[in-house]
Write a structure and sequence with these properties.
Elements (H helix, E strand, L loop, with lengths): L1 H19 L2 H38 L2 H8 L1 H7 L8 H14 L3 H22 L29 H11 L13 H11 L7 H9 L9 H27 L1
């Protein structure tokens, strides 16, 4: 779908430039934007290397493990149906910690693994579309039509792709996202961020005099979105139980 949207936008720009006699401006803007894109990629590579490296150091030092244990009560509150000690809890915790630190790249693998473990949990429960007819637990997902996108992307978008892949292959019993999957996806999208690394890098690249000035507004905005997400998930969960 995104390919069609981008193609439509490019075609519209070219047609507009042709009809208004501004093709030179359109061509110049395209070339300038291409150069800006390369510069931005170089900047983001440096930022990504720095923060992912720090995340790796934090993981090897045991800091991530301590933080993961520390937020287990929060995980139990949001995901009461996930058994204690289940691998999904650790991946969910790691994903949330990375999101809070603004490390969208670092949280992607944990988000994908969390969705995979949640799918396995549904298979263990015998949920239609997840368990095989023989009753054995599936060790992975069936890739849905277009589900190859679940292997790429970053941060919140990747969790959405992963959930799409968990929907199952057409022609077989349709998979329905579990409560835990929906809650995790909503929380992943609305995640609280203490350090919006991406936005700081973008602002720095485009000449902001105070790139870090976005931190306070971002904390307020994401805190509100996370609070609303938690309340929404708990209300929906109670309605389903009722």
């Amino acid at each position: 779908m995104l390919n069609y949207i981008w193609a439509f936008m490019i075609l519209t720009g070219v047609v507009y430039g042709a009809f208004t006699g501004k093709m030179a401006e359109v061509t110049s803007a395209a070339l300038d934007s291409a150069g800006d894109a390369v510069s931005l990629c170089i900047t983001m590579i440096g930022v990504m290397a720095l923060w992912v490296g720090l995340m790796e150091i934090a993981q090897k030092s045991g800091l991530i493990a301590k933080l993961t244990r520390g937020i287990q009560p929060f995980i139990s509150f949001l995901f009461p149906r996930i058994p204690k000690g289940h691998p999904a809890r650790e991946y969910i915790a790691t994903n949330l910690i990375a999101n809070v630190l603004g490390l969208g790249w670092a949280c992607t693998p944990a988000g994908l693994k969390a969705m995979e473990e949640l799918a396995k949990l549904e298979a263990e429960r015998g949920t239609p579309g997840y368990a095989q007819e023989s009753g054995n637990v599936k060790r992975g997902w069936d890739v849905a039509d277009g589900g190859a996108g679940a292997a790429g992307g970053s941060g919140r978008g990747s969790a959405a792709d992963a959930l799409g892949a968990a929907a199952g292959r057409k022609g077989r019993r349709e998979r329905v996202a579990s409560r835990e999957m929906c809650t995790f996806l909503i929380l992943n999208i609305s995640s609280l961020q203490l350090i919006p690394v991406n936005m700081i890098a973008y602002r720095s690249q485009y000449g902001s005099v105070n790139p870090a000035g976005i931190i306070a507004p971002a904390i307020v905005a994401t805190a509100v979105s996370t609070g609303v997400a938690v309340v929404y998930c708990k209300v929906k969960d109670r309605r389903r139980r009722g």
